[in-house]
Design goal:
The structure holds two protein chains of two kinds.
Chain A lengths: L2 H10 L5 H13 L1 H18 L10 H8 L7 H10 L8 H24 L1 H7 L6 E8 L6 E5 L12 E2 L4 E8 L2 E9 L3 E3 L6 E4 L5 E7 L3
Antiparallel strand pairs in A: 1-4, 2-5, 3-4, 5-6, 5-8, 7-8
Helix pairs in contact in A: 1-3, 2-3
Chain B lengths: L1 H14 L6 H20 L2 H17 L10 H20 L19 H20 L2 H12 L4 H8 L3 H25 L2
Helix pairs in contact in B: 2-3, 2-4, 3-4, 4-7, 6-8, 7-8
Classes of the chains: A alpha+beta, B mainly alpha.
Chain lengths: 217, 185
Amino acid sequence: MDRELRRLHELLDGGLSPEEERDILEKVDSDELLRREFDSLVGAILTLETCERLPADASFTAEVMKRLPVRQKLLRRRIADFFIGERVLRWNVAAAATTAIVILFASILLLHTHWKDPSVAQNASSKEAVEKVTITFHAPQAKTVALAGDFNKWSVEEGAMKRRPDGSWTIELPLKPGIYNYMFVVDGEGWVPDPRAESYRDDGFGRKNAVLRVNRI
Amino acid sequence: MIMQEEEYSIIERCREGDSELYAVLVERYGNMIYNAAYRMVGDPETAKDMAQESFIAAYSALREFRNGSKFSTWLYSIVMNKCKDHLRLRKATVSLDDVAETTACRGQTPEAALCAKQTANSLQAALDTLPGEYREVLVLKHMEGLDYKEMETVLGVSANTLKVRTHRARELLRKYLVEREYRNG
């Protein structure tokens, strides 16, 4: 590669001083062959830089996740999950009926106590306030992101999030105090948990939902 | 910076066994790694395999990932190595005759869309004629937008060597495209 040609490449990499830039550009102007080489070089780089980018398959993430090797959870993680992890309640009719009867008796007993003590009844009548909760998710390459959870019956349409200029997506939800499960749906296909969730809960299908707690004000 | 801290937190949770969170990283970098792989191997199906295997390899080696590095850079280095291994095995080169004419395409007409597709195909055919080490610098520098410092981290080669390599690769690509244009009149 001769000296001028090397200089052209350095010019395109932004590695020349202003004087060197002026010098090589003057040569490009005065030398027909060098000018043609410069033009074709710029053309080749433009072809590279403006080339269309292809989207990966919609199932790309799901396929990777299926093929991940199984990793045993660390002991401290298992201990933490045992004490503070969320659990799925499995039930049958007999257990549910027994529980219902116990709750019914307990409720009658409680109502009876409240009836006798008017101050307790007055406190209980206060309504639970609805709180506005903002959820954000960073996904600069996504075309759409939706929030689906048990607060909107897992509806992707109802949970459409708004894109911010910094590539994050946001949504504001009016929620009553309670515990909610949710996931983000990226480009209508990829279901991903919230990396910032305070905890996660098995969804019963081998994946984990993010868990949101809304506390009383 | 916030995104990087979030990624470190996700990686830490994955190391502890919360593998579900890895989906966030795959979703975030899937297109990027797939495109880099496609430009290296020139075939969508092989590119998908290379990209997916790179994510799986990265997950298996998460303990080796050092906080302070960029996860994307680490992924690039994995996918580039996988693609180069694949190219070494394949050792196939495409004849210059397969490189179609590259022309500038403008506008939104169906003709322009077809022209853009032809340009993409001819560029890919031209890339396929280049040796792997030239191809990777063009992909990283001009298609993925990395600077020489980042490329140094990805490829484990000094920035000065990479500059020379990039100049030579660009020169080869330029010659191929000019020759093709000349042949097609």
